[in-house]
Amino acid sequence: MSPYPIGWFRVAASEALRPGTHQNLRVFGQELVLFRTASGAPRLIEAYCPHLGTHLGKGGCVEGENMVCPLHAWRIGGDGSVVHVPYSKATPRIAVRSWLLREVSGQIFVWHHPDDVAPEWEPPVLFEATDSNWTGFLPARTWTLRTHVQEFCENGADNVHSTWLHGQQSVTKSVEVDRHVYTHRTAQRFTFFGLVKALAKEAEGTLDISCHGLGIVVERGQVTMKLTMEYCLVFFPLPVDDTCIELHSVLSIRRLPSELATRLLWKKSAAEMSAIIDQDVPVWESKRWKERPVLVAEDGPIHAYRSWARQFYPKTQAALRPGQTG
Prior knowledge:
Elements: E1 7-13, E2 22-27, E3 30-36, E4 42-46, E5 61-63, E6 66-68, E7 75-77, E8 82-84, E9 98-99, E10 101-104, E11 107-112, E12 138-145, H1 149-154, H2 159-166, E13 168-178, E14 181-190, H3 194-197, E15 203-212, E16 217-224, E17 228-239, E18 245-253, H4 259-286, H5 302-309
């Protein structure tokens, strides 16, 4: 089964890719080069020059709108085509693969479809990125994990694990499915939340988890203690190869009257989130995918989530890591 589902996947933060710079990426089991042209457009192309196979990102550079090969200075355009050979009157009509990108809410996303079908939806616009009442999205943490993107996203549908693994209670209020978006609305009671311990013995709140495909997970929550905290935590699971993913996270919180208190709350919240994910990591990296799990009613809407997720695989195949059986 494919480790590379259909959808939009975040490959970089916008601010990390300045005009004239590039990054070497390994995504979907392939070596790619992400670069920003002089005019400011992000481009993503296959890493290897069509001439002799030189890696464009290792010693190469960006000039104008093109990536320049370090070995013979062939210019490769953002669409992957050879646009200039400096020592020849001929320009071969050949191209490497290029990938469709979108730049939204301070992040750069790539569209992946195994059959090169055009995008069927767009990445969500996150209002917290530009609303002055919020901090904007700041990078929280990145993990490299031996798991599948679907395993990570399924965490949000698994209510009971929150109690036994994280010391929190999660109760489903509703599940909403709108084509590529799966939203799980929950009521939460926090007893492990480290920040809460300093303010109250426990706290209640709400958490709405929206999966936009399997590459963008938006968590909007509210926690009520001696003060009310509102936050938006976004996870970007990215398939690296058939065994690993990168998990990127960014966090925005609604500003408090005190800027110092806002910074401290953001820092504490990011640390708490990181600690919770760290509890999940050994489980994800050692568990076996069960195609037909045995569930009880209290487990949460796992079946509904998996039914929704099938649309992101060719011929509605469910996600299963290579070498595993259900």
